Each structure stands twice: as C-alpha cells, then as structure tokens.
Amino acid sequence: MALKKHLAGAVFAVVGATAAFATATQAETYKWITFKPQGAGDAQARSTQWYVDEFKKRTGGKDEIQVFWGGSVAKTGEIPDALGAGLGDFGDIITPYFPDRFPLNNAVGFFIPQPNGPLKIAELMAEWHEKYPQFEEELAKANIKAVGYRPLESYGLLCTKPVKTVEDLKGLRIRSYGFAYPALFEALGASPVSINTAEAYDALSRNIIDCTPIGPALARGWKYDEVAKYYIELPLGASFGHLIGMNLDTYNNMDEATRKVVDQLNHDYSVTYNKMLEDDINAVREAWKKDGVTVIDFDKNALDDVVKSDAVQAVRQQWIKRAEAAGVEPDEIVKQLQP
C-alpha cells in the first residue's frame, strides 16, 4: 500500500513537472528515474548526464530527457515496477537486486570469478540480448527494454590485513552476497559473512569482517578505504551492475529515427561509461599512494582450481538450469564466462 501511494504521488509530480517543461520548450521530453544523487560525481552519474546530453544533440533538440535524481520518483527497489508502469521512460535497474525476477540478465552473478572486464561484459550483454530473444522477453514481462549496460569495475578484495596467497585467505571473514561469492569464499577456506553495502564500513572498522570484494572506485566512493588499507588484486573479474532500461511502450512508440538514436547510444554509452570508470579507478589508485593503501599483487591463476570445486560448479549449474528452462542453449555463454 505504501509503495502504491508513493508511486501515485510520484506520477502526479512527474507528470506535472514534465508538462510544464514540455510547454516551455515545445519538445518531446522523456523522464529518467534514478536512485543516483545528481552531485555524486562518479562514472555512473556522469555517464547518465552524458547520455542525456547526447540524446538531445543526436535528435537535433527535437527530443530530450529530464532526469529525476536521487530516488525522487522511485527508490532503488521500486524502479523496475515504476519504469514498467510508466512513471519513467528511462531508468537505472540494479539487476542483481532482482535475481529471481531477471535470472537470465543476472548470468554474470553466478559466474564469479570470470575473466572479463566491464567493457567486455557490456559487449557480452548486448550480444546475448541480440542472439537470445529470451533475455529481452524476460524484461518485456515487466514492460521494460534494455537500452544500455553499466557493469561494475573488476573486483579484488579490500582487507584490513595483508593477503598474499590463497593460504592467507583461510579463516578470514569476508563480506558476501548473491550466489557465487558465498560458494567461492567457502571453497577458499574463508567464512562468508552476509552484510549489506551500507553496513560494510562499520563491519570493517569494528573487525566484524576482514575483507570485502570491491573495486577501487567503489571502495573510495563508500569510504571503505578509510578503514581497510590493503587492496588485494584477487582476479574476480567485473561484476554486472546496472541495466539502463526503458519503458517498453515508450520505446515502441518512438518514431524510427529516435529509436535509432537510442539503439546507437546503447553501444556508445558502454564505451563512454567504461572510459569514465577507468579514469575514476586510475584517480583512486593514484590517491592511494598518498593515503597509505597498499596494493598487493596476486597470482592471476590462483582461483583456477577453486572454480572446479563442487560448490562453485553447483552455483553455475543453478544458472545453467534456469537458462535451459527458458529455452536458452547455455554452452556458449558459459564458455565466455569461464576463467
């Protein structure tokens, strides 16, 4: 009931604001709903603004997008329903938050560690959507179409103590979530601890956990690197983060020229976002030299045998069975996600 009231109020606010904007500009104005604060300054927020600016430029000013920042229309967990209901035309969906609703589109989350960086994962997601209609059909059930992919950076471990070998991981308490991480850390002899993102800072500072899987940019964004001073280059690969979704009706009702702009932005966005993400990562790594964060190299092949363990393979089989049940032949996808 609370969600319905919230969404109903948001409809009124969005429609009113959009109507005023459209009257003033005489342009078609689409709505982008996001949980990101406008002033976040990270690659996710900056690339959203880039998309908005490019969309307006490429449509010759005929169409534009107004961003409703900071969860003002829908909170993180509400965005798929809000987007499907038409409260927004574009929106950010944190796909791993909905593993049962979008299992195909969460493939990467079952295959950690995997060998691909963020740009390659974005390219693979686009490839799978083109090759396997079931990926789009899964989203279409929620009246959503994917028009962009925003993987997270390649992850290592941020720890409160140095870790140099697989043996050093045994007995450590490592923050864990999702499907693959718990099985992986158990197979390594560590103890997975379920703690959400917002609580991880305190957990690290109070020695409730020893490590958390994360990348440099996110570690700085959440300020984890204030309390954990060892970044371990454990080769976990990129995690899949966000879909840029569109209301499917909005997409279908666009004229052909505007749809072509959106389709081209799907590819161009991934390249631009990845460059912004790399800039952020490089800036953090440079800052770490002054801030006393030690980066520890790790054997790039150290996890090869662990991946073969029964526990890790069982998680991968969960996704394979879901894919087969949806009519997807999984062999090629599995091969692309193998270390």
From TrEMBL:
It holds the Pfam family DctP. It comes from the Bacteria. Keywords: Signal. PANTHER family: BLL6794 PROTEIN, PTHR33376. It comes from Rhizobium halophytocola. This is TRAP-type C4-dicarboxylate transport system substrate-binding protein. Residues 1-22 form the signal peptide. InterPro entries: DctP_fam, TRAP_DctP_sf.
